Amino acid sequence: MRNIIFDEIKCFIFNRTVVAVLLVVAFSFSFIALNITITNFISASNEQRAAEESYGDKVFYKISFIGEDEVLNRLSSDKYKEKIKELYDSLKQSNLFDYSYTFADAMLFYNEGDADYSSKDFPIYKKECLSGYEDGEADFYESSDVLTLKAIYASPDFEKGKHITLSKGRWFTTDEFTVNSTKNVVLPVLLGSSYKDSYRIGDKIENAHPATSKAVTLSVIGFFDENSYFYDNNNEKVILNRYMVIPNYDIGYDYVLNDGSYESFFSETYNIFNKLINARIICSDKNAKATSEMFYKMIDKDKLYELNLIDETSGMQQYLGGLRDQTVSCSIIAIFMILLSVVMFCFQVYYNIRKNRKKYGVYMINGITSKQLFILMLANALTIFILSDALLFILNQMLNNGTILDFGTNDYTIVVLLVIESVLTIFMAFFGLYKIKKMRLCTLLRENE
């Protein structure tokens, strides 16, 4: 029986090479289409859950600017600092909506005034706390004299996050969101669970630069529970384990110098990104129109016509709708390709049986059982799928280092492929057995007299 199976496989590969190649390619690309469908479905489901969890029943707006670098440079200049601050203060004080200006960025550690400052003076940290760690770029953020760690700049509503809890310590107080002097600035910091073994409440972390050239001292006031998370201004889930969180502070001192210019700490603090572009305006659905109208009245008052408002919630719904449509389209293509491949296989089985009916007739005359014929057809189908999977693996390795079938990100693909291949293998084996059993034995006997 083993020799019969090997002969059948060799005959399929070497005597019907064109048919074998076509079937293998057809099934391989069917599985690629299936993988894309699964990936899109998972992505759409995850995005839908994230949107529901992040937005809830609220409407979210984002502030953006109209133009290119020239406009951005103008908005970032000292000429616009007072306007930026006035708009920012107006947005915070509105009773029509909530203004959330929490965002993820970096915290730099260095000391320009100390030539001997080096990595031995860095705060205690783990490699995964470096900026760019997830993207494989951590080494870029860890030089001999400058360290860049992940940080969150939090607005007062940050502690209201449903999935943010402290394992020990306290939250920021209202007063800690205001810096009243540039002399020996000390900011409170909450640390992620990755820092628990390195620091205690009350410890000081020196030479921190929270988007400012002036160094400040961080004072540890607490630690987050492991896997606490929130959704940032880009609606991306941020797990706080590897982050340090400080208040997105305001300035409470006189920041205008004698010559009319602005003090540098104030100027760097009221960066348009820190206070406006990275923020979100949150309101109820019934107040959405009024919120939009109020925003444009505010920018008209401050003559900040370069700014505009983006309906983030509607944009996300359009994006999710596009993902769903893409998933449906891919699934239709995948199902069609799989069915077409199965039909091709059935035709080649039927043609093969008719062409080699004498051979199968001899098998039946010599007493081969239905179980053995089923195994023979099973081996034929398995050969196709093994070769298809091999081609799929080769394509995965060759094309863009795994963009077609990324085994690392789509954990369901292999399982789904195995289930589909198992079902199709059994079906195709039964189809072959059915066609052989339909042959008339008396005709076969006459042909072999």
Quick structural gist:
This protein has 449 residues and is α+β, with helices and mostly antiparallel strands.
Write up what this structure looks like:
Helices cover 48% and strands 17% of the residues. The chain has 449 residues and is an alpha+beta fold. Strands 3-4-12-7-9-8 form a 6-stranded mixed beta barrel. The protein has a 4-stranded antiparallel β-sheet with strand order 2-14-1-15. A hairpin with a 5-residue loop joins strand 10 (229-231) and strand 11. Helix 1 (2-15) crosses helix 2 (17-55), helix 2 packs across helix 10 (370-398) and helix 8 runs parallel beside helix 11. Mean pLDDT is 85; it is low at 402-409.
Rg for CA atoms: 33 Å
Number of strands: 15
Q: Could you give a short account of the major beta sheet?
A: 6 strands, mixed, barrel
Shape: elongated
pLDDT averaged residue by residue: 85
Instruction: State the helicity in percent bands.
Output: 40-55%
* Strand arrangement, major sheet: 3-4-12-7-9-8
Extract low-pLDDT stretches: 402-409
Strand residue percentage:
15-25%
Give the helices and strands as they follow along the chain: HHEHHEEEEEEEEEEEEHHEHEHHHHH
What is the strand and helix layout of this fold?
Layout: H1 2-15, H2 17-55, E1 58-65, H3 69-76, H4 81-93, E2 98-100, E3 103-109, E4 147-154, E5 166-169, E6 178-179, E7 186-191, E8 204-209, E9 216-224, E10 229-231, E11 237-239, E12 244-247, E13 250-251, H5 264-269, H6 272-277, E14 280-284, H7 288-301, E15 307-311, H8 312-355, H9 357-365, H10 370-398, H11 413-437, H12 441-447
Helix pairs in contact: 1-2, 1-10, 2-8, 2-10, 8-11, 9-12, 10-11
